[in-house]
Structure prediction request, 424 residues.
Amino acid sequence: MVRAVVGANWGDEGKGKITDMLAETSDIIVRFQGGSNAGHTIVNDYGKFALHILPSGVFYSHTTSIIGNGVAFSIPALFHEVEDIVAKGVPMPKILVSDRAQIVMPYHILFDQYEEERLGKHSFGSTKSGIAPFYSDKYSKVGFQVSELFDDSVLEAKVQKICEIKNVMLEHLYHKPLLVPEELMETLHAYRDMVAPYVCDTAAFLQQAIKDGKKILLEGQLGTLKDPDFGIYPMVTSSSTLAAYGAIGAGIPPYEISDITTVVKAYSSAVGAGEFVSEIFGAEADELRRRGGDGGEFGATTGRPRRMGWFDAVASRYGCKMQGATEVALTVLDVLGYLDEIPICIGYEIDGEVTRDFPVTAKLAKAKPVYTKLPGWKCEIRGIRKYEDLPENCRNYIEFIEKELEVPVKLVSNGPGRHDIIYR
Ligand code: GDP
Prediction:
């Protein structure tokens, strides 16, 4: 049985926590897209962790964690994260890396920085982890596949070719130091030695696991609105954030993904530039940011303050639809307990007309939020374990959202911890 855990919004919905929780009853957890650019924050019995590349299942000794072929794989990031969690007392996790995964190279990170610098105030707000240059190279067919690390003649030929192309840009566009082939070879050899114990044909492993009836979790990064096809292009990430891509990025048949748990945040937050219709500003935003998440809404990778907004039913319904959500996990509901009234964006006004449908980016730029307000519940709901025990206004908020989403809200998260969860 294969379940995907994915985000409906701009990312940071709390997928890490939901995956960590669902991992308890899973055998295998797979990262299938993205890289170490976004982070999951997980609070468990070992402490608080920010994972960027490791799947969220690494804290359980019964699970296997897989870096799938679709990932922008940073080898040093993997090793630093493994070192970090082991140093904090977590048992050495069982990790497998796809022999078809491609490698984020140091020059991808540099090109990401140089390009953002060049764009100046028109920059994308990239985390500068090299993700866009990495995927550009993958699809331009000049990327390094993990399997190639084990063949020096392939590496040498490719390194020469890459230095030729990249050095033209480094010299003439960016005016930065050039790549040196010998240094690249050294880096690749170091990467080979780091990754060697983990490499295998993970698609074959997963297909066998499906036959054996194992429970598999596909862990998505970011959310629908950052998808290159269905998100707020061009302010999106460079790999698909949709559950459907889980089949490709892990190497399994699409029809095996039976459950799509879509994580929806009880309010909105976003990092980086791009359209964000229900965004709020000033003191109102500061207060929500300060109270949000677990200790404030600041980027897990960059520490940047996140942009804040009210729940956006238009974007979230679309987010669920494009994921193919079979159920919703509604998160960070506890954060809203301070509000007398809670605005919800239920429509977009574009050129004088109100729509419930999420438009293309060009129209989105003109959209103004149409709000309704629901009464707040004005109390702490952390610690509550049964749905009936939630205050009535809180249940009304959840049920209103559920109706707007048109997907059953099966899980309600009311705190950052593993057990802060209400099943419906
Ligand atoms: P992800 O990238 O989707 O995993 O999102 P993040 O790691 O950015 O998660 C958002 C933050 O919210 C993290 O600091 C979590 O610990 C925290 N979090 C997750 N669920 C809840 C919740 O229900 N309530 C509160 N207060 N915090 C939560």
Notes: Residues 152-174 form the longest helix (23 residues). DSSP finds twelve helices and 21 strands in the chain. The domain at 2-87+203-423 is CATH 3.90.170.10 (Adenylosuccinate Synthetase; Chain A, domain 3). The mean pLDDT is 95.
